[in-house]
Amino acid sequence: MTVLHSAPATALYIFLDDFSELPREAMRLLVDALISPLSRWSDFIKFKIAAYPGRVYIGSLDKTKIEEIYLDMYGLYGGNGVAKMEEKAIDFVRRVVEKRIQHYCKCDPDIYFGLKKSDTWRTLFYATMGNPRTLGHVMLYAHESHLIYNLPIGTQSIQDASQRYYEEKISPFFSLGKYKTTFDERSSIYSLKELLEAVVTKARSIRQEGSRDSTSSKSRSFSSHFYVSREYEDLFQSLELSFFITKYFEQSDRTGNRVSIFALNYGLCIKYQIGFGRPTERREDRLYFVERVFDYNSVVRTYMLNNQEIKCSECGKEYDLSMLDALKMYHMSCPECGRGKCKVVNLSKKYEDIIETIKPELLLPDAELGILQTLHHEGRTMVAAEIAGELDCSGQLVGRRAKNLAERLLVRREQGTTGGVYKYEITDQAQKAYFSDPHASDLKLGEASDPKN
Fold first, then answer.
1. What region, left, alpha or beta, does residue 332 occupy, with left being phi > 0 and alpha being psi -120 to 50 degrees?
2. What's the pLDDT at 417?
3. Which residues does 433 contact at the CB level (< 8 Å), separation at least 6?
4. Hey, which residues does 382 pair with through a beta bridge?
5. Is 174 exposed, middle or buried (0-12, 13-18, 19+ CB in 10 A)?
6. Beta-carbon neighbour count of residue 199 at 10 Å?
7. What are phi and psi of 77, to 5 degrees?
8. β-pair partners for 261
9. What residues have CB less than 8 Å from 91, skipping those under 6 apart?
């Protein structure tokens, strides 16, 4: 500390990215053993931590001394209503794209876009929700499908790019989830798939009298958004972290209760023919998202009854979900044995046969599954730095994990004759084991989702 104070600087800033992706125990250890002591010892050391709302452990840190800056659309722009939020978020997307083109291409951005630019920016906002990483992928796909053929980018090209992004980057969360190393993880992921299927089934079944044309040019009502009571918001956190849904807004419903409004992924909506957005012609349309038809509380309650149970980690005693509030009052301590902690366990009854029949030798850690997924979709030889860019991790991590995959004959790992970096390519054995079913990620929707209904 003495050395730091002697340096010609007023503060030492430590940046921690992807904090929410740490396992809960690792998060506790980092805060309790490092961040909290250093924060108490000196005002010279300042931490800047990037995390998702609700996925943060602060331990003994004084919350009143923490400055929270929200980067989501609602937190940044939602103070003056949904219309203003959308307007400002669309303008943010436009500015990001135009500034990047001006900086890297040294030209007028207008040459890359069609005539109806206002529709293009709005569609690009829907497709990305203002997420810069998603924006980069969608623009890359639009470049590959249109710009290299001297065709301008418009709403159709963005829709196509968004569906491709969903199918290649988002939906494999489920198809590869069955190969995660622990049974609880696999069951939890497929339980979330059931929740998403219930939501999408409901969205596709909604029919409004006098429905308007949707952004996907289908004669359907807009049904991409839904709302739930804020007490159910935590159930959707994992789906939100995986970009299947996005928290869009907070608003009071027709009975005056504050609710959370979520939007389904735009590429998902294109794939399953769900009209995205809301009507905007009338002033009353600002309340469209809280129409009673978009109340999904009953969907959530049904999901919880069918897919969740409360179980003691010590004695195995199971409790009814109606006991949850009472158990929370006593910090989830088990009334039966008094020693164990009760935990809400997500089960997947619909997919339990699939989960239980996975061969143990196919189970892999998240990082290694991500490497296989990247090599599969790129369909070419790649170096560690390229794979790391896709997975948002270090090249060293990719190198270590890819070596493990090579030893299991799932990846070909070759170095040039004169040395240099290793190059990686997925093997036929891995393709057959993990990617032989092209429809593994598809949602299995109920009868109500049939467009003819």
1. left
2. 64
3. 362, 410
4. 424
5. buried
6. 23
7. -120, 0
8. 227, 249
9. 121
Between CA 54 and CA 183 the distance in angstroms is: 25
Angle at 271 between CA 137 and CA 138, to 5 degrees: 10
**Which stretches of 245-310 are DSSP H helices?**
266-271, 297-307
Phi and psi dihedrals of 312, rounded to 5?
Answer: -80, 135
10-residue block means of pLDDT along the chain (453 residues)?
A: 67 86 86 88 85 82 84 83 92 96 93 90 96 94 94 95 95 88 78 93 73 41 92 88 92 90 96 91 83 93 84 85 82 86 78 78 91 93 92 88 94 80 94 90 71 39
CA angle 388, 391, 392 (to 5 degrees): 75
User: What is the residue whose two structure tokens read 């030209």?
Assistant: 107
66 three-class SS: coil
Integer Cα distance of 24 and 15 in angstroms: 19
Domain ranges of the chain: 2-68, 364-434
Q: How far apart are CA 260 and CA 77, in angstroms?
A: 16
Record the pTM: 0.83
* CA 431 – CA 410 distance, rounded (Å): 8
Q: Which two tokens stand for residue 444?
A: 């299995």
CA dihedral of residues 399, 402, 407, 413 (deg, nearest 10): -80
Which amino acid appears at position 427 of this protein? T
**Can you name the CATH fold of 364-434?**
Arc Repressor Mutant, subunit A (1.10.10)
The Cα 402–Cα 11 span in angstroms is: 39
Region of 26 on the Ramachandran plot (φ > 0 left; ψ -120 to 50 alpha; else beta): alpha
Strand order in the sheet with 225-229: 225-229, 258-264, 245-252
Element (H, E) at 426: strand 419-426
> CA-CA distance, 204 to 270, in Å (whole number)?
12
Residues in contact with 331: Cβ distance below 8 Å, sequence separation at least 6, in sequence order:
341
Amino acid in position 146: H
Which pairing describes strands 258-264 and 12-16: parallel, antiparallel, or unpaired?
unpaired
Q: CA-to-CA distance for 221 and 450, rounded, in angstroms?
A: 15
Residue 96 CB-density burial (10 A; 0-12 exposed, 13-18 middle, 19+ buried): middle
